[in-house]
Structure formats: structure tokens, C-alpha cells
Amino acid sequence: MCAGLSSLFARARRKTDPLPAWSQHLVWLAPLALSALAGCASRNDLYVLLPGKDGKTGALTVESQGDKRTLDTPYAAARVKNTGSVGGFTTSEAEVKQDFGPALAAQPKRPVSFFLYFISDTDEFAPESKALVSQIFAEIARRPAPEIVIIGHTDRVGSMPYNDMLSRRRAERCRDELLKLGIPKIRITIAGRGWREPEIPTAQDVPEPRNRRVEISVR
């Protein structure tokens, strides 16, 4: 195998390796079969940095034998046609959809999180959170094999053992609401964190409505 093609395969990530944090915002289409047929004289690797749903964009550095280019704006792109040369340009959302539509459509949907808030010292939904249950169900219904993780939380009013129990009850309440809508129980995992992971840090016995919550992650 020639040196250029060997180095290309040496950098490939194994399926068991953890995904990097920026991978959910990256489309990488590298036609390895074409590179192999063309020989070592040329290659045609294309990298495009996509914006996240939250409006944030990460960064990616593309490097080939010392020549490098950092992509840090939406739809920034880099192409490696020859080893040791990285060319940069900017593409657009329309061009990405036109060129990579099938690959994007094949990607799994990104995880989505919802927050439901509760009345103090209860597992009763706060009024503004009741309507969110139907939105959560709609998101779940769009996924062929959803995985749902429900984590309950509390503020720091009361003892730790009591709040551990209360956070669990809140998670169970959300699970029960989803079960009523027909979501299979096997798709749902629940846990209670008590006051250990506050949204708003407070002193002991200080009530905080934003900490009395359940986070539901759908993926």
C-alpha cells in the first residue's frame, strides 16, 4: 500500500472509540474507494462544519502533513486533494443539502432535552409545565426506536434522604405520564439526583423553583 493511502487509513477512528464532542456538528465524506482507485497522486477528502440546533458551532482543525486549516464558522469547509495541501472555502446550507442530502438523512436524530418544573415539596407539575408533556410525546413519536432518560431533581429544602426520594417520585410521575400515552416502559430509564445537581446553586433550606425539575432526554 502506498504511503499516502496508508496514512489515511491509519488515522481512521475505530467504531469502539468515543465520539469527540464536535462530532455531532460535523459531516465528513471521504470517498476512500475513489482514492484507492486513483492511486496515491490525489485524494478528495471534504470536511464541512455544520451549525448545531442551539445556534452554537464548534471548531475543527484539518491537517495534512503540516498544512492545516481551522474551521470555526457555520458551513466553513476544507478539501484535501493532495497530501500536504489543505484548501479552505465556505459552502452554504443549500449546497450541503444538495451534495450530502442522503448522508444527512441517514444520520440519527440528535438528542433533545425537556425540563418540567414542580410545585414545592410535591410531584405535581407547575402550571407552565403541564402542556409540555404533549410536546415530549410528539418528539418521541418521531423516532423509530426512542431511548428516554428521566432524571428528577429537587431544591435544598429538607434533608438529603427526603429529597432523594422526592426526586425519584418526580421522575416516576413523568414516566407514568408517558406510559399513559402508550410509550413502552422498556424505552424509559429513570433516576433521582436529589439536590446534587442544582440548576441554580443555593444555600441549605433556600427554596428555588428552577431546581425543582425533571430533565427528560430523548434520543
Task: Indicate the topology.
Layout: H1 3-10, E1 26-29, H2 32-38, E2 45-49, E3 60-64, E4 67-71, E5 76-82, E6 85-90, H3 93-106, E7 112-117, H4 127-130, H5 132-141, E8 148-152, H6 160-180, E9 188-192, E10 213-218
Parallel strand pairs: 8-9
Antiparallel strand pairs: 1-2, 2-5, 3-4, 5-6, 7-10, 8-10
Structure, described:
With 219 residues, the protein is an alpha+beta fold. The chain folds into 2 domains: 3-106, no CATH class; 112-218, 60s Ribosomal Protein L30, Chain: A (2-Layer Sandwich). 29% of the residues lie in helices and 25% in strands. The protein has 6 helices and 10 strands; from the N terminus they run αβαβββββαβααβαββ. The chain has helices at residues 3-10, 32-38, 93-106, 127-130, 132-141, 160-180; strands spanning 26-29, 45-49, 60-64, 67-71, 76-82, 85-90, 112-117, 148-152, 188-192, 213-218. Strands 1-2-5-6 form a 4-stranded antiparallel β-sheet, covered by helices on one side. The longest helix is centred in the C-terminal third of the chain and has 21 residues, at 160-180. It starts with a helix and ends with a strand.
Please sum up the structure shown:
This protein has 219 residues and is α+β, with helices and mostly antiparallel strands. The protein is 29% helix and 25% strand.
Features:
single chain, 219 residues, alpha+beta, 60s Ribosomal Protein L30, Chain: A, 2 domains, four-stranded mixed β-sheet, 6 helices, elongated, disordered N terminus
